Amino acid sequence: MFLRILVFYLTTMVFSGGLDALQSAVGPDPDLIQLVQFAPALAVGVMFLLFRRSTRVLVRFTPAAEVAGRSAVMVGIVLAAMAGSIAIHAATGHSWWSGGLPFPVWAMVLTMVVGAAGEELGWRAYLQPYLQTRFSVLRSSLIVGLLWGFWHIGGFEHGPVYVGLFVVMTVGLSVVMGALLQAARGANLAIATAGHAAVNLCLFALFDEENGDEFSMAALAAVWVIAAIVTHYVYRRPRTSADAKAAALV
């Protein structure tokens, strides 16, 4: 298991470097879409080549009602978390408005969805289910959140405090996604993409955290930790008699 995680993560990092270089050379504008977001999806392709028979990716978009319902819940949690962050800024007298979106809303929504799908194909459609073959949903979500957070190496230019807060935020968001996905019947990509795109769109539209504002990042980290705790306890699977028998046999 460790070998596969390592191969996937290192491959993602290699593709990330190449895509960053490509974007610097030919574009497009990174405020519209970042090519590095497709690195996890490309890494999944490598995993298919190396471990063809046992590589599993959860990309179903059905049943439609369940996908729509869970996606709506995920987006609702995102909006509630963002509102909480705004409230923290307002209560402490800190400015939070970033100036709005740099491109038309329709273009930003489209690119946010496409870019989020590129990331989530790797993080939540491949890595999360793979980890859950050995670990609990919560532990798998924590691992994915840590790897996902440290993958954003662009944040390192703002110092260790900023990076630490950013990783706390990604871990919290990962726990929320993991809790919602645990009974999604294979529709991990659709639901995770909806949540991820909503987060990215809100961050672009509202906050200025990408410029290294530690207070904004701390506020975001705090609300996502709260969201993770609440979501985990609301959606955790109750222990059944079958679970107890299985545990006794082990």
Automatic annotation (TrEMBL):
> Could you tell me the keywords of this UniProt record?
Membrane, Transmembrane, Transmembrane helix
Start and end of every CAAX prenyl protease 2/Lysostaphin resistance protein A-like domain?
A: 103-201
Transmembrane residue ranges: 31-51, 72-91, 103-123, 135-154, 160-181, 188-206, 218-235
Q: Which InterPro entries match?
A: MmRce1-like, Rce1/LyrA-like_dom
Under PANTHER family, the record lists: PROTEASE, PROTEASE-RELATED
- Name this protein carries in UniProt: CAAX prenyl protease 2/Lysostaphin resistance protein A-like domain-containing protein
Origin species: Kribbella koreensis
